[in-house]
Design goal:
mainly alpha
């Protein structure tokens, strides 16, 4: 029987608890504030090919997140009381599907970059001084570049673990984690924060699982 301090068992407990909290919170928010979330997504995708599918995608994503949170929560309890990791494993699989859906819905850096024109128009109509307006445009595109760079770095490390050391992976993972903190602080409950948080946590655990010889 594994002890709480066994590395693999501890990691399973922490990951299942994290996934349960993350996706239950996100799903419940989508259910409680459905109109608000749907309104934001509809506006965000107004000029994209997905404009007519937002309600359907929103509903599917809510169901997947709820399933991921419930399975992960039950899996956590099963790990604690019976040391059975099967349910937690299925919860992690559904959670992975939910994260993939989030990336698909957000379209990652593409959607962020494609919204540049709309954001630039809003800045032009505002009373921001020229310097601050141009600075905001620069930060918007710079954020897209950082997202692309992070995606490439994590993809390379995932395919070739010896391409980076454990401290480097964890250090790079701080970028999406800190970004998530700023999003939650200044914007609040926002899909971009969930994506950065999930990606950052996954990168940290991936770094911790790297063997010294990898």
């Amino acid at each position: 029987m594994p002890t709480f301090f066994a590395p693999l068992y501890t990691a399973q407990l922490l990951v299942s608890a994290f996934l349960a909290i993350l996706f239950l919170q996100s799903a419940i928010d989508k259910i409680v504030d459905r109109q608000g979330n749907l309104s934001w997504l509809t506006g965000h995708f107004a000029k994209s090919p997905l404009a007519g599918f937002v309600p359907l995608i929103f509903g599917v994503l809510t169901v997947i997140e709820l399933a991921a949170g419930v399975l992960s929560g039950i899996g956590f309890l099963a790990l604690v009381f019976s040391h059975n990791s099967a349910i937690a494993f299925y919860g992690a699989i559904v959670s992975a599907v939910a994260v993939l859906c989030l990336f698909f819905v957000a379209f990652g850096a593409y959607i962020h970059t494609s919204a540049f024109g709309h954001m630039s128009e809003a800045v032009a109509k505002s009373d921001l001084p020229l310097f601050f307006g141009n600075g905001f445009r620069t930060l918007w595109l710079m954020d897209s570049a950082v997202q692309i760079a992070l995606a490439l770095v994590f993809a390379v490390v995932a395919m070739k673990p010896n391409a980076a050391t454990r401290p480097i992976v964890i250090l790079v993972a701080l970028v999406p984690l800190v970004t998530a903190v700023f999003i939650y602080h200044f914007i609040g409950n926002f899909i971009g924060g969930h994506i950065f948080l999930a990606g950052g946590i996954a990168a940290v655990f991936g770094g911790l699982l790297l063997r010294a010889g990898d």
